[in-house]
Specification:
nine-stranded mixed β-sheet, four-stranded antiparallel β-sheet, globular, binds zinc ion
Length: 402
């Protein structure tokens, strides 16, 4: 679903046909398990085992992808959650508190630019009026995209009643790097300690559109020159900032013709470091380089911060308890997740499933099937402990009979 032939990966974006197809698949899988499926006001889908009530244990992830992404980022957490429900039933567990499997809207921000859109709207971390006006590369607003698939965008916004039902949130995710392997080569699963500070900035560089042949070099204001400086600065500016990473993964020249000097270039800068002040300093250093190059070329630069997430430390007690229970290592991550949004409100944990190559957000993203099964077992162990069992004695007898 959503397979992107030219790039060889998956492209599923919020409310597009491929993502809606996967939502349908999710609803069918949940209903097949007797879970009650509902959409919330912010485009997130919930499947409940037990009636929604405060103190619920929520697990899940997202169904959208980056453009040309891998098969595991997002769906692994959703599929593992459904299989963990199956596993708890095999174990004879009757949850003492409700358990929900949730899929969150536009986690990657691949369509509307703001990552973790659904969880941010739900928790109030994103402004609903601004979000409704976000638009995709074709100029379609979030509000119009929502309406097209039957969601009412006017109801988007903070949902304290729903948030109050979430007692604990646990997200399983494919590892996006190779840290787990370097920490413990035998570990198929790890627990997250923190998400480093990260954000994305849009740089709009404006020059003078002109003819690629007849325009003398001295007459050019070519915005592609400062854009090139931004790409290089994203690497070179890092030398003074240990542990920081910066990436330009997207450049859009306007109008974009081979024999045309662009009139403007938009590019997006992604910067991450454990410390938000370092992240900001890296951005400042890169933007200073771009401004200097733009001034020399007679171009102007406008910088917009599209998103910024400060460092998120996951609940240390919960993380330690889980790593001890599963006997697996604890590792930080430089990737953002809905779990990072929930961590500001409720005890939250993440499980990572080993990714042998470390490649992610690309078609080669991979996790071995055996490791995925280990992940399901680990998630089931964690959920079993969190939901409790309404009748452990009965379960004990039942288990002995098997
Ligand atoms: Zn993800």
């Amino acid at each position: 679903m959503g397979c992107d032939r030219p790039q060889g990966g998956y492209s599923r974006h919020a409310f597009d046909d491929a993502e809606m197809q996967l939502r349908q698949w999710f609803a069918e899988q949940a209903q097949r398990r007797g879970l009650d499926v509902e959409n919330d006001r912010n485009g997130n889908v919930w499947a409940w085992w037990g009636a929604p009530a405060p103190g619920a244990v929520v697990t899940g992830s997202h169904l959208d992808s980056v453009p040309g992404g891998g098969a595991f980022d997002g769906p692994l957490g959703v599929v593992s959650a459904l299989l963990a429900v199956d596993e708890l039933r095999v174990r004879g567990i009757t949850p003492a508190r409700p358990l929900a499997v949730a899929c969150f809207l536009d986690e990657e921000g691949g369509r509307f630019g703001l990552p973790c859109l659904g969880s941010r709207l739900l928790t109030g971390a994103a402004d609903a009026d601004q979000a409704r006006r976000l638009h995709d590369a074709d100029g379609v607003s979030l509000a119009d995209a929502a309406r097209r698939v039957g969601f009412d965008p006017s109801t988007m916004g903070p949902d304290p009643a729903r948030l109050a039902t979430v007692g604990t949130f646990v997200e399983l995710h494919v590892e996006q790097g190779r840290l787990l392997r370097s920490v413990d080569p035998t570990a198929a699963v790890g627990v997250a300690s923190e998400i480093v500070a990260h954000g994305r900035w849009r740089l709009t560089i404006t020059g003078q559109g002109n003819h690629a042949g007849t325009t003398a070099l001295t007459d050019r204001s070519d915005p592609m020159i400062p854009a090139a400086a931004a790409v290089l600065a994203a690497r070179r500016a890092l030398s003074g900032f240990d542990g920081a990473v910066a990436t330009v993964g997207r450049i859009v020249p306007v109008p974009g013709g081979t024999n045309v000097i662009a009139s403007a270039v938009s590019l997006w800068l992604d910067v991450r470091h454990a410390d938000a002040t370092v992240t900001a300093a890296v951005v400042d250093a890169i933007v200073a380089d771009v401004r200097a190059e733009a001034a020399a070329e007679g171009c102007t630069v406008m910088v917009q911060r599209e998103s910024m997430s400060d460092r998120v430390a996951f609940d240390p007690g919960l993380g330690l308890e889980i790593s001890g229970r599963l006997d697996v290592p604890v590792i930080p991550t430089a990737a953002g997740h809905d779990a990072g949004v929930f961590a500001a409100h409720v005890p939250t944990a993440m499980l990572f499933v080993r990714n042998p190559s470390g490649v992610s957000h690309a078609p080669d993203e991979h996790a071995d099937a055996a490791d995925c099964v280990t992940g399901v077992q680990a998630l089931a162990d964690v959920l079993e402990n969190l939901v409790g069992d309404i009748n452990p004695a009965a379960r004990h007898v039942g288990a002995g009979d098997e």
